[in-house]
Amino acid sequence: MEKFIVTAALTGAIHTPTMSPYLPISPDELAEEARRAYEAGAAVVHVHARNPETGQPSADSSLFGEILSKIKSKCNAVICTTTGGGLGMTVEQRVSVVKTYSPELASLNAGSLNFALHPLLEKIKEFKYDWEPQYLNLSEDFIFPNTFKTLREFSQFFSEEDTKPEFEIYDSGMLSNIEFLLSKGKIKKPIYLQFVLGILGGMQATVNNLVFLRNSARQIIGNDFVWSVCAAGRNQFKMCNAALLMGGFARVGLEDNLYLQKGVLAKSSAEQVEKIVRIAKEHDLEPVTADEARKILNLKGGDQVKF
Questions:
Q1: What number of other Cβ atoms are within 10 A of residue 61's Cβ?
Q2: Smallest Cα–Cα separation from 29: which of 13, 44, 14, 51?
Q3: At residue 1, does pLDDT exceed 80?
Q4: Is 291 exposed, middle or buried (0-12, 13-18, 19+ CB in 10 A)?
Q5: Which domains does the chain have, with CATH numbers?
Q6: Which of 42, 52, 51, 57 is nearest to 12 (CA)?
Q7: Phi and psi, residue 229, nearest 5°
Q8: Environment class of residue 93 by beta-carbon count within 10 Å: exposed (0-12), middle (13-18) or buried (19+)?
Q9: Percentage with pLDDT > 70 across the chain
Q10: Can you tell me the distance from the alpha carbon of 184 to that of 155, in angstroms, rounded to the nearest whole number?
């Protein structure tokens, strides 16, 4: 059997507590979600932090440390920390988790874009917390900033900590940004790409767009990369299935999609992991273990982190 990496994105900074009662909030909930996803077949768990009282996305360093240590105590999964953060966070807040905790893997957003969540306001009449509608409304006039200066600075911080960047690609121009960083010696091959599709402001979640991105990466970067895909909402499993057939990896989880199937909320990211593993096995594909993922992604190992 051929093998692939499954990533479970546990909570993110897009969905709010009103949208699902199953969205993990506290460090204990996130650690338990990580364990369940790992046991279901996820080799990597992608982690954001939230205020345990309100569920609001947080950049609090001590909170991140608690989450990371609790996940590590429960399972052997590769922990991929976010540096995307949440709406309105400063660059310094976003990258602090890498500088403080030196994770094996962390997201690195490869360019700026309009990152719009405000249409969700049309679907919800009452919110559990006051911050939720304000947060969503903010995105109508928000540019997610990832300039060449911050890309250079982030890459330096990652290099100093020997943290592997998972480059988040929302649009094709971001591949040129990565090629530029390579040409200036700011990053080195092999590259790990995560194609993020279906965000309002980025490329939409279609097979044509996924094929275009994969082929463009080969033309611009060369063949020395591996790649995964994640897709927002109802396109999650369609795009992950397409990625598997094209030789890529798959990311699922409640960060990207709250549903298991039409009209049925997922009670855990682990349920989504189980579903994509079941789909993959129909194609004679098998999920890798966490240690196999470490070899594929050229990671430093879980014993080299600062948590």
A1: 15
A2: 51
A3: no
A4: middle
A5: 2-304 (3.20.20.70)
A6: 57
A7: -135, 145
A8: middle
A9: 100
A10: 11
The answer to whether the Cα torsion of 258, 261, 264, 269 is positive or negative is negative
Is 83 within 8 Å of 46 (Cβ atoms)? no
Cβ contact 96:59 at 8 Å:
yes
Return mean pLDDT, the chain.
97
Average pLDDT on 55-71 reads: 97
The separation between CA 188 and the C-alpha centre of its own chain, rounded to angstroms, equals 21
Give residue 88's pLDDT.
85
Output the six-digit token pair for 27.
């460090």
DSSP 125: S
- pLDDT, tens digit, 9 for 90 and up, residues 230-281: 999 999 999 999 999 999 999 999 999 999 999 999 999 999 999 999 999 9
Q: What whole-number percentage of the chain has pLDDT above 90?
A: 97
User: pLDDT band for position 86 (50/70/90)?
Assistant: confident
How many residues comprise the chain?
307
Q: CA 123, CA 241: separation in Å to the nearest integer?
A: 28
d(CA 276, CA 271): 9
Only one residue has tokens 């273990």, namely 289
- pLDDT of 57 strictly over 80: yes
Alpha helices, DSSP H, located in 146-304: 148-161, 173-183, 207-221, 236-245, 269-282, 290-296
Nearest by Cα to 234 from 262, 265, 204, 264: 262
Return the closest-CA partner of residue 132 out of 66, 50, 62, 196.
50
Q: CA 32 to CA 47: how far, in whole Å?
A: 12
Most distant CA pair in the chain, distance: 50
pLDDT at 89: 87
- Using DSSP's 3-state secondary structure scheme, residue 261 falls into strand
Q: How far apart are CA 18 and CA 20, in angstroms?
A: 6
H/E run at residue 71: helix 61-74
Residue 19 DSSP label: G
